[in-house]
Amino acid sequence: MSNQIQKHFWADVSDAPDAPGVYAWYYNPEITDFDLDKTIQLAEMAAGSEEAEKIIRETLEQRVFQYFREEPYTASISGPLKPVYAGSLEHKSGISSSLVSRLAANPKRLSNIRDALSQSAPLFASPLYIGMASILKRRLARHKSLIEQFRSSVSLDSNENEESDAGFALQVAKRKIPPERLFVITCSMPSSDGAAIDIENILNRIYYPILGRN
């Protein structure tokens, strides 16, 4: 029996295979009808001004880009007989100024962007998290439970959750990613010979998931 690829939406995670394998979580971006209509209306009213570009930029940042922002890097620079500089490097937003200008000039272009983004994952998307499991159903149920727990009760400033499952769930909660927009792709294996460990190792190093790497 060959490996089997399946897609599971948030509500269907319990249907994941009762088998070993690897998996990848994805977020399906959403600009709601309300946000789309409001942004287009406000940008058209402010046409030709910097306010129109500000409106477009804020919508893209709040509804799309914020969910994919990388965590800060800790960097250190040193040299022979030189001072040492160390600190945190923040990920700056990747919103293109030329994109914002085009959309401010014609806000209705947002409709096409919204439609494309809603269908972009997984074919055009970076995974949020890649993992492996001896039992996929059990591991994914733990992810779902932790996400629900952190969204409802855990302090999001806590640094106590460093293990991978909790770390991923905490990031989802901190970014206020809507769980119903999450889905997971599973690849179940025909045996438990440890192949999933090797595959997970490689996938993490070539696809660089946004919210966690093993």
Write the SSE topology.
Elements (H helix, E strand, L loop, with lengths): L3 E6 L11 E7 L5 H13 L4 H14 L9 E5 L7 E5 L7 H9 L3 H9 L11 E5 L2 H17 L11 H11 L7 E7 L6 H13 L7
Antiparallel strand pairs: 1-6, 2-5, 2-6, 3-4
Helix pairs in contact: 1-2, 2-3, 5-6
Write up what this structure looks like.
- The chain has 214 residues and is of the alpha+beta class.
- It is globular.
- It folds into 2 domains: 4-28 and 121-207, GIY-YIG endonuclease; 33-117, no CATH class.
- The protein contains 7 helices and 6 strands.
- The chain starts with a strand and ends in a 7-residue tail after the last helix.
- 28% of the residues are buried.
- It is 40% helix and 16% strand.
- The strands form 2 sheets. A 4-stranded antiparallel beta sheet has the order 1-6-2-5.
- Helix 1 (33-45) runs antiparallel to helix 2 (50-63), helix 2 (50-63) packs across helix 3 (97-105) and helix 5 crosses helix 6 (164-174).
- A hairpin with a 7-residue loop joins strand 3 and strand 4 (85-89).
Quick gist of this model?
40% of the residues lie in helices and 16% in strands. The chain has helices at 33-45, 50-63, 97-105, 109-117, 136-152, 164-174, 195-207; strands spanning 4-9, 21-27, 73-77, 85-89, 129-133, 182-188.
